[in-house]
Predict the structure.
Amino acid sequence: MEENGAAPEPVLEVPPPKEIQIFKTTEEIDNRRTEPKIQKHEAFVTEVQAHANTITKLDKIGNDMIQQNHFEKETILMFANK
């Protein structure tokens, strides 16, 4: 409290509460839960597509190394089978 008995001014401003959404159907609830998962999946697909050439090249190199009995053939096979 301040010397005059009044409460001190707040130091931090508290943001107003977010609007509460009330879902009327289970479908609305399911859509709310599913949407972030779909977005995450789409981002993953985009990332894989962006690196598809590199992934293909690495796969070919690994297979070539296996065919040529590279000294790390077993390690390559272990990673290829994960």
Remarks:
- Residues 17 and 36 are 22 Å apart (CA to CA).
